[in-house]
Amino acid sequence: MRDLSELLALAEAYEQDLPPAALRLTPPSADALAGWIDHTLLKPEATAEQVKTLCAEAKEHGFATVCINPVYVPLAAGLLADSDVGVCSVISFPLGAHSPDFKAAETRFVIHAGAAEVDMVINIGALKGGDFSLAFEDVEAVVETAHAEGALVKVILENALLTRREKIIACLLCREAGADFVKTSTGFSTSGATMEDVDLMRRVVGPEMGVKAAGGIRHWEDAKRMILAGANRLGASASLTILSEAGQQDVNR
Amino acid sequence: MRDLSELLALAEAYEQDLPPAALRLTPPSADALAGWIDHTLLKPEATAEQVKTLCAEAKEHGFATVCINPVYVPLAAGLLADSDVGVCSVISFPLGAHSPDFKAAETRFVIHAGAAEVDMVINIGALKGGDFSLAFEDVEAVVETAHAEGALVKVILENALLTRREKIIACLLCREAGADFVKTSTGFSTSGATMEDVDLMRRVVGPEMGVKAAGGIRHWEDAKRMILAGANRLGASASLTILSEAGQQDVNR
Hints:
globular; 8-stranded parallel beta barrel; TIM Barrel; alpha/beta; about 250 residues
């Protein structure tokens, strides 16, 4: 990492005055929308049958990935091997309270089992406690492991638990560590994605990185708002509803 | 595992008619109460400073363990090395959706870092989907790993997500796998410990195993009810309140 004090000075400047949004996204047509969505099933009671259904839906509609818990990665990877749908899994989810070594080991484990993308939870306690070096090491360990295997990394900040300053610092740490995306929420905390957070994240990380909005996105209206705010990937369990609403709107146009 | 069909037949019999409670517990005096409690801090935003405070409180009052996330095990183990307070950590927490191999690896990791007890989450999706062999393998993998290192295993069933039949089967699987305790809840689902569940768990596992009640235990009245129902260990974040209320009652007696 470059000098931490430099990064904190930049965070302080951004706290006063966010950089302009250098990327303006337009919501896609209903036909292209599925490619923006991680079709998600992370609830602990999800069964193998439900994961099979999720994978079949993802193939039919062309979702970007299925986003599932680690135990189901081999099943989904087998079912999706002959398709363009990727397998996305989650690391240290949903609490983020593991060491960098352990997060790297979990990353290796799910990638070897067939995941092409991993959504890791940042060390939230380290951010809250001001141990930014540890928060950075954590992201760096996962990014190095995943990139060596050709997989993408999204870093979940869990904005519901962070101050504005902590969100800005987290985005800068993720960019510095070479993460591919920052992601708003796990969907398991007190609140999910907000337009304000997505806008802040997009401004701080700039146009080159990805911003994934997740948590509480249940309708096409929610999805459009998140994309207009700067998200280029969405995580949703209600993906079929969102697609159907988008299709309906195209018909009515 | 003995024949699964034998175990399912026993579960069916218990569903009709639970065995009598063969162990009657009496709530301890205020002085002895701390030894029944895992002093718990599992929220994702917990900082190192808060864990230090937790450990100091545990030493002062003589709690059974501190129950913390994996990232803080080395810190707590260092702080508690010269005390009788154990370090308890959590495995596949709070979703339980990892493979047996991975849960065993996480168990080894936290025990080598200093944990003497591990609270693992059972494969809830496997139970809901009727894949009882997988649910069993999972518990067995963690029990074998932990026992080889001299550590205890508590298996969290997350009762809020289970039917009565699934709770009974889960208890029988845990007993069969040699687990030390069954535990009601993670504290991160839709509800926590209930007297009815603790009673069911105690009846099914019998007098030899432990039953840990956790989730929503905030007062001495809650704690007493759980012990009378059959719990011999409690998990609580509000442990200091509970101790203080118990002490007050002794004074007023």
